[in-house]
Protein 1
Amino acid sequence: QVQLVQSGAEVKKPGASVKVSCKASGYTFTIYGISWVRQAPGQGLEWMGWISAHNGNRKSAQKFQGRVTMTTETSTRTAYMELRSLRSDDTAVYYCAREEVDTAMVYWGQGTLVTVPA
Amino acid sequence: QSVLTQPPSVSGAPGQRVTISCTGSSSNIGAGYDVHWYQQLPGTAPKVLIYGNNNRPSGVPDRFSGSKSGTSASLAITGLQAEDEADYYCQSYDSSLSERVFGTGTKVTVL
């Protein structure tokens, strides 16, 4: 079965960076893209960006451009999302999701809580 | 601010039918991009309920259905059950932003 397993919770200082991993199993990794979505406490879902596991093409939301880097490592079937210059309002649960061709996010990781104390 | 607008909350008694609207514009839903719906139970990751406007993944009860018309889409839940109490989000693609976009989210309460 398809599974996306994310790395554990992180606590970071303002100004630092965080790198969240998302390890895929149960499907051919290079066929699908991975989207990254975050959810601040008590808030809605916010799309951060997408990367193709086939060719590395990527697109990030304008809000995060210059601050986010998405990568994939085919040998380990793992996607990564690095967010730099962290602020307290980056405190959120970060999700990876496997994306279908019509942008539907059918399979999701369990989420990674990133806390940036004020 | 999201480009897809949903009502903050809807409620209904067990067994009733409720609908959640998702209002967009000519650069997303109105441009023909597919709409997907997600259910999020407290403390869990979102789960896809409807993809491609009106398709249910296997395992999703047929009490859930989706539709799309013009610049809006809707999710209907018939035969409301206590376990349906959750947050619901629509999602599409916006060509002006070149981004995937989520709706503002709707909390469903079962009275």
Protein 2
Amino acid sequence: GNSVTQMEGPVTLSEEAFLTINCTYTATGYPSLFWYVQYPGEGLQLLLKATKADDKGSNKGFEATYRKETTSFHLEKGSVQVSDSAVYFCALSRLNTGTASKLTFGTGTRLQVTL
Amino acid sequence: EAEVAQSPRYKITEKSQAVAFWCDPISGHATLYWYRQILGQGPELLVQFQDESVVDDSQLPKDRFSAERLKGVDSTLKIQPAELGDSAMYLCASSPGYGYTFGSGTRLTVV
């Protein structure tokens, strides 16, 4: 079956530091890949996505590249801010089947950014 | 911007009581999902609807959980009886066939 593995948290960084959160996946076929962010007590917000190999998703300074050869979708940001403190979830789905299949999530990585 | 509405936002219930959650998806979204997110874990699918039909309920504990989407619009998730292990965030999401929009969730605490 499909699965997503994320690096364990929490990740604690100083403001303006470089961020990498690792994500690898196992799936049949060609899944679409997503990063979601969850602020305390809130639902999930889509951060970025990529639908095919070598695509780069980007939003709000965050980037992730769909690497089929390494089955990875690592999240990066060049300079984090305190406001980026949240839990980040990597996820996959089989959108290209023509119907909206379910999302399979990783366990989440908590990011804490300090001044 | 259209939103997925969920209520209540928070619910505290006693063990063995019944509890229900409501979700109103974005208008026109045929697919609706209920996810359960236990603290410190990623969301896991409980049930997926396509219009009023259940597409996937393989992870729904059917001895105590039920879900319906009678007219293919809004949906209700019910737990009866609630157990301590049901304490979690219950998230609803909808999709028009591509992309997903999540509601703010219902935080359930069973005491």
